[in-house]
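Example 3.2
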Amino acid sequence: MEPNSNDNQPVLRRPNPGDGKAVYELIQANPPLDVNTVYLYYLLCRHFADTCAVAEVDGQVLGFLSAYRIPNAPERLFIWQAAVDPALRGHGMAGRLLEEVVGRPEVADVRYLDVTVSPSNTASRRVFEKFAQKRGAGWHEEVFLNVEDFGSQVHEEELLFRIGPL
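Structure, written as tokens:
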């Protein structure tokens, strides 16, 4: 697939409930992302469509970014998961999905982005560093979840990056 050809330009849009299964399959096909249930992706696509985005090429979901406003801190947008199919990697798609969500009127008053990233996920870290740098925004880093917090599940710690004020 040639994402730069005119016929196959990714369309960035809000997800709809029917995208839940396709998002689940995208996440499942792209380890080491944490795979949740189809039901959860359905809920994200239905209840949080204003703060999530999909990248679609020829009717196929090849990118997804999920986010939500933190209920007790609505000035903060929590970026939860970003997934990009290998066919679209290397073209800044994760950053484009992030820009798509942050540019929406529904989040115009958001002042901070919170995002968690495993230490080994340098590609995701670069996406968010570029985003912060482009806006001249501050960057704060702290441990969000320790390895022990995952119990018997094998998982790296998760670092929280707070970007802002935007």
